[in-house]
Design goal:
alpha/beta, 6-stranded parallel beta sheet, 11 helices, binds NADP nicotinamide-adenine-dinucleotide phosphate, 41% helix
Length: 311
């Protein structure tokens, strides 16, 4: 298939380009080719390219900055996916788009013990608590309203060995400091960009092999949660990062001591949900895909060559 892929400089876009590029023709749409903050130009540009499938991992992902840069966040996260969806409807092709746990307010089950937090299913009512979450939710709605053939995958706490993310920040801090204070009262599934790309690859294979792609879309289109399984806190994630990095020789000094702190001790411009758990039963059952737990995915990620390992 000819796949138009956005966000190729980002964590997920880069992983998708690597995996899907081995099986399909990828038209890599970077910011220069398709600037998502200029949504008026998007629909006609895509119609000219005439891909067989569009995949959109690009997004305005600066959660705190989105609180004040609302106009750009709205263009990139709402108007751009809306324009892509219009183009997909015109060309009668499918659109795969990614969304976030931040569409929820995170209050689900927070009166229960932290070890028994329930997970949000796809049908749970959204109520974003920050501008980023609000724009991502409106982006989902714009795609659904367009009636184009679509898959929307909601994910959470994405990391990779590339770009800006919590894993790389913690590896850097663990190599610089002797003591780290980490939030221990927000919970979710750390999710490797590689795992999201692998599941997407399997689903695109199923689509490509379908004898009637329109019928395939009719049967499978919709909204799915896609995260690594299990859950932890930022503190739990950091504990695992430091342990696993130490085992692989990725720390240049003794491991730092870790201290759990409440989110109220680490104020940020954007509010974050307490419970970010997403239930992944639907995607696993519908497409017969299995998703690794967050600990195995972290190990798999760290097993790849890491730039810090050489220093
Ligand atoms: N990161 C997370 O923790 C997280 C959590 C939940 C959901 N998600 C969702 O998962 C998806 C992938 O996230 P990610 O972490 O891979 O994102 P990322 O690493 O921040 O990459 C974002 C990508 O979007 C591109 N982009 C931003 N503004 C653009 C514009 N105006 N025109 C064209 N391209 C633009 C960036 O290009 P430049 O390099 O040119 O800026 C970059 O390639 C997104 O839908 C995100 O909302 C992420």
């Amino acid at each position: 298939m000819r796949i138009l892929l956005t966000g190729v400089s980002g964590q997920l876009g880069a992983a998708l380009q690597r995996l899907l590029g081995a099986e399909h023709e990828i038209i890599a749409a970077d910011r220069e080719m398709l600037d998502l903050s200029q949504p008026d130009a998007i629909e006609s540009a895509i119609v000219q390219i005439r891909p067989d499938l569009m995949i959109n991992p690009a997004a305005y992902t600066a959660v705190d900055k989105a609180e004040t840069d609302t106009d750009t966040a709205y263009k990139v996260n709402v108007l751009a996916p809306q324009a892509m969806a219009r183009a997909a409807a015109r060309l009668q092709i499918g659109l795969i788009h990614y969304s976030t746990d931040y569409v929820f307010d995170g209050s689900l089950g927070t009166d229960q013990p932290q070890t028994e937090l329930p997970a949000y299913t796809e049908s749970y009512a959204c109520n974003p608590v920050n501008q980023y979450g609000k724009t991502k939710y409106e982006g989902e709605q714009a795609i659904q309203d367009s009636q184009c053939q679509h898959l929307i995958f909601r994910t959470s706490w994405v990391y990779s060995l590339h770009g800006k993310n919590f894993l790389l920040t913690m590896l850097k801090l663990a190599n610089e400091r002797d003591h780290l204070r980490i939030v221990n009262d927000q919970f979710g599934a750390p999710t490797s960009a590689l795992s999201i790309a692998q599941v997407t690859q399997q689903i695109v294979r199923q689509l490509a092999a379908a004898p009637d792609q329109a019928a395939w879309w009719q049967q499978f289109q919709g909204l799915y949660n896609l995260t690594n399984t299990g859950y932890t806190s930022w503190f739990g994630f950091t504990t695992a990062i430091v342990e696993q990095a130490g085992l692989r020789g990725l720390l240049n000094k003794a491991a730092p001591t870790l201290e759990g702190i409440p989110a109220s001790d680490y104020p940020t411009p954007a509010k974050r949900p307490v419970n970010s758990r997403l239930d992944t039963q639907k995607i696993q059952q519908t497409f017969s895909v299995s998703i690794p737990d967050w600990q195995s995915a972290l190990a798999e990620c760290l097993d790849q060559q890491h730039p810090l390992a050489a220093s």
